[in-house]
Design a protein that fits this description.
- The protein has helices spanning about 5-15, 30-45, 70-80, 105-115, 135-150, 155-170, 180-204; strands at about 20, 50-55, 85-95, 95-100.
- It is α+β, with helices and mostly antiparallel strands.
- It folds into 2 domains: about 5-105, Ribosomal Protein S8, Chain: A, domain 1, CATH 3.30.1370; about 115-204, no CATH class.
- Helix 2 (about 30-45) packs parallel to helix 3, helix 5 (about 135-150) packs parallel to helix 7 and helix 6 packs across helix 7.
- The chain is elongated.
Length: about 200
């Protein structure tokens, strides 16, 4: 077994001095860990980092030895892999994850592709800015509920906005062609309401 000082030196060589986020040292709650990790990963991606290390700990000091921080961060990494931030991640040790970040240029291309109309222009989603307050509130409720179901209890404003946009694109792609923008938004509101009902049923 590699001793800790040597392992630390090898990790520093691989990930760089600033390429490690040590959550274990500050003993955060799961919600705090998720918020801090998301912000840090976005910052490292903007800096051009390609591979980073997140140390969560094994949960040995948690109630019933349940690794709540580790599990929450793992769910976050899976989610961010759908948001153009994380390319892939793997267990580096029982208490840490090695994370490869998607380059910003590739992330932009992926988001553009996800936002592209799937069939005809009639199915393209309205922008969030073009939606009514009622529709945006419905989307926010759906986004928050979806993130909570994933274990993200205190998502950042950016996190919620990303999920609102994802839900908008995903639901709009299922809508029938509409003649006017008002008809399209009405159909979107109905789709959001049905999604909220499904989410509520799943959480019961």
């Amino acid at each position: 077994m590699i001793r800790r000082p040597l392992q630390h030196a090898l990790d520093e060589l691989r990930f760089g001095r600033s390429g490690t986020l040590n959550l274990r040292a500050s003993l955060p709650t799961a919600a705090e860990a998720v918020k801090r990790t998301e912000s840090w990963l976005r910052m490292k991606q903007a800096e051009g980092a390609r591979e980073v290390l997140i140390v969560t700990g094994r949960g040995n000091h948690s109630f019933a030895r349940i690794p709540v921080v580790r599990d929450a961060v793992q769910r976050l990494l899976a989610y961010l892999s759908t948001r153009g931030v994380v390319e892939d991640h793997s267990e580096h040790s029982p208490g840490s994850f090695a994370v490869r970040l998607l380059p910003m240029t590739a992330a932009v291309r992926r988001q553009d592709a996800q936002a592209a109309p799937i069939t005809t222009p009639a199915l393209s989603p309205p922008t969030l800015d073009g939606l009514s307050t009622v529709t945006r509130d419905q989307l926010r409720l759906l986004a928050t509920g979806t993130l909570q179901a994933l274990g993200v209890r205190d998502p950042s404003t950016r996190f919620i906005q990303d999920e609102m946009e994802r839900q908008c694109v995903q639901l709009a792609a299922t809508l029938p062609p509409a003649v006017t923008a008002d008809e399209r938004e009405a159909a979107l509101r109905l789709a959001i309401a049905r999604a909220l009902e499904r989410l509520d049923d799943e959480q019961r």
